[in-house]
Amino acid sequence: MLVRNQVFIKNATDDPPFGLPHGLRRVMVPLVEHMITTSVTLPLEMLEAATTYAGALAGKKNLDVRFCARTLAPTVTTGGLSLTPDCTFSQSGAGNLILVPALWRNPLPVVRKNPDLVAWLRQQYGDGGALFVAAGTGVAFVAAAGLLDQQPATTHWFYMEKLQRFFPTVSFKPNHLITRAGRIYCAGSVNSVADLMVYLIGVALNDAIAQKVEQQFSHEIRKPFRDTHFADDHTTTHKDEVIVALQDFIRHRFPDDLSIEQLCQLSGLNYRTLNRRFQQATRTAPMEYVRNIRLDQARDLLKSTNLGIAEIAEQVGYSDGDYFSRLFKRRFQLPPSAFRKSVRGKLFHLND
Questions:
Q1: Along the chain (352 residues), what's the average pLDDT of each consecutive run of 10 residues?
Q2: Considering its fold, how many domains does the chain have in total?
Q3: In this structure, how many other beta carbons lie within 10 angstroms of the beta carbon of residue 161?
Q4: Which of 342, 293, 352, 288 is nearest to 317 (CA)?
Q5: Cα separation of 77 and 83, whole Å?
Q6: Are residues 263 and 284 in the same domain?
Q7: What is the secondary structure of 303-324 as a DSSP string?
Q8: What is the chain's Cα-based Rg?
Q9: Owning domain of residue 265
């Protein structure tokens, strides 16, 4: 039986983007034969790491992690691990976060043999209002439950066409590793699950903790969530067209000497109204949004180029290299030079 430690997540005080429920109080993992264990153990380990970094946060809540199955008999997974359920599907109650595991090889025969799991997923979505994370071919269970009809989804590339033929009403996105349809996230691989968990940890706790978890697990090979996911609203999670236009302007002009006065002028809003509407739409103040765009770009340049720190600072909009370095360390917990060394040290190189 897999031993799990209790972890804690802070309750959210506002409705966060993408339908994340108030606090991740109860995480449920359905067990099924041929499941790939890492597709669910990795997210659980990342949550535990987030808890460790969070420390004694105010308002923390015990996160109840439960393994569920049709019966209480142990489930032998791909790789030979034997996992013992904590409860049956009928005993589970409602969950806040459902981690649907990926399956080894063709998932369709396993889905056909597990109608109880399909029915349980449908109930969790309808009755409990749970957030779903479906890893790889585990999306087949969610599709079989009818929860992705006319909705975007992704899966492991090898089975994309097969699942598209079997579930023709699902809008599979072959060019996206992560998709969102309301409360349902799909990740095309275990690596993509890691990307997604970094994002969700940032929403449930805060960005600083998410950055630490990312550095611990996967930051050397990742792109930000916003660059890899496909959402069912296609563009943004809010409907404020004025703020959407400002976000687009900032993304294209972030190296320029932007000011809050310029953003007010462009939007036609006074400072107080702009700040309120921008934070309502993005959960970030306008100039903090500019700073985050700049630092994310700097992170990518540190990973992929040999530009000097001062050159990178200038390219992303900072004339003072020391100030840039302080901001970068505050955001990513490492100064730029140490970050580059950490990333480059974990990449593989081919020598001629």
A1: 30 37 73 92 88 62 81 88 92 91 93 95 86 95 96 91 95 88 90 88 82 73 52 55 87 90 93 92 91 91 88 93 93 88 54 34
A2: 2
A3: 11
A4: 293
A5: 8
A6: yes
A7: HH----HHHHHHHTT-S-HHHH
A8: 21
A9: 241-344
